[in-house]
C-alpha cells in the first residue's frame, strides 16, 4: 500500500490524496507534521526520507519521493493514466505548463494574504504589502479566468487532467480567503465543475461543505 506522509490539512498533501482518489490507489496517510511530538518533521525517521523537512513524502513499495508536483507526475505516469497526464509531448507540455505556473506564480501570490488573513501569523500585518499582494493575486486569477473562459471546461482543455489538482486547490484557497472576489465567470463555473468530483469534495476542499 502507498504510504503518504504528511498532515492531511496541508495543501500539498491534499494534492496527493486527491490524485490517489482519482487513480483509485489504496493509501495509508501518516499525519507527520500535525503537532504530535512523535511525528515531528525534524525527527531522524522523517529527515532520512526528506532532508528538506517538508511534506508530503511518499513511499511506493520502497520508492521514496518528495515534492508534491513531482509526486503527482510520478503517480499518474506509473499507473499509466494518460487521460490525466498525456503521453503526447505537446499535450503533456500543456499540463506541465499550468502545474508549473501554479507552483511558481499563483502559489507565491496568495502566500502573504493567506498567512495574514487566515492563519493570522505574526509578521504578516503590513497593510501595504497585503494590498499589493492581493492585487497581484487577483491579476493572476484573471489570467486563469481567461483560460477557463476559453476552454469552457478545465484548465488545459476539455478534459480533467493533472493540472486541475494544484490549480483547483488554489481556486479553493482563493474563495476561502476573506478578501474581495471580483466576479470571474470562468473561475466560478470551473469551481462548480470541480465540486461535482468526489475527490475534490473529500480532499480538495478538505472536507469543507
Automatic annotation (TrEMBL):
Keywords from the named record: Transferase
This protein's record includes keyword Transferase: yes
Membrane-crossing segments per the record: none
Domain GST N-terminal: 1-83
InterPro entries (UniProt xref): Glutathione-S-Trfase_C-like (IPR010987), Glutathione-S-Trfase_C_sf (IPR036282), Glutathione_S-Trfase (IPR040079), Glutathione_S-Trfase_N (IPR004045), Thioredoxin-like_sf (IPR036249)
GO molecular function annotations of the record: transferase activity
Domain GST C-terminal: 88-209
Keyword Oxidoreductase listed: no
Alphabetical list of PANTHER family matching this protein: DISULFIDE-BOND OXIDOREDUCTASE YFCG, GLUTATHIONE S-TRANSFERASE-RELATED
Family that this chain belongs to: Belongs to the GST superfamily.
UniProt protein name: Glutathione S-transferase
Lineage, broadest ranks: Bacteria, Pseudomonadati, Pseudomonadota, Betaproteobacteria, Burkholderiales
Amino acid at each position: 500500500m502507498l504510504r503518504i506522509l504528511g498532515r492531511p490539512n496541508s495543501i500539498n498533501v491534499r494534492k496527493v490524496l486527491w490524485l490517489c482518489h482519482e487513480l483509485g490507489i489504496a493509501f495509508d496517510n501518516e499525519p507527520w507534521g500535525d503537532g504530535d511530538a512523535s511525528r515531528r518533521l525534524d525527527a531522524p525517521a522523517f529527515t532520512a526520507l526528506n532532508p528538506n523537512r517538508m511534506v508530503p513524502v511518499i513511499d511506493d513499495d520502497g520508492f521514496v519521493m518528495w515534492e508534491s508536483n513531482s509526486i503527482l507526475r510520478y503517480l499518474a505516469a506509473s499507473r499509466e493514466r494518460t487521460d490525466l497526464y498525456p503521453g503526447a509531448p505537446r499535450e503533456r507540455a500543456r499540463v506541465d505548463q499550468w502545474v508549473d505556473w501554479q507552483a511558481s506564480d499563483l502559489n507565491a501570490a496568495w502566500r502573504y494574504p493567506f498567512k495574514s488573513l487566515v492563519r493570522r501569523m505574526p509578521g504578516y500585518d503590513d497593510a501595504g504589502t497585503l494590498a499589493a499582494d492581493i492585487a497581484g493575486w487577483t491579476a493572476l486569477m484573471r489570467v486563469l479566468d481567461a483560460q477557463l473562459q476559453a476552454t469552457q471546461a478545465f484548465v488545459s482543455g476539455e478534459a480533467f487532467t493533472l493540472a486541475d489538482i494544484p490549480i483547483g486547490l488554489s481556486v479553493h484557497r482563493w474563495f476561502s480567503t476573506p478578501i474581495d472576489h471580483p466576479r470571474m465567470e470562468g473561475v466560478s463555473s470551473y469551481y462548480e465543475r470541480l465540486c461535482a468530483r468526489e475527490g475534490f469534495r473529500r480532499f480538495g476542499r478538505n472536507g469543507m461543505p
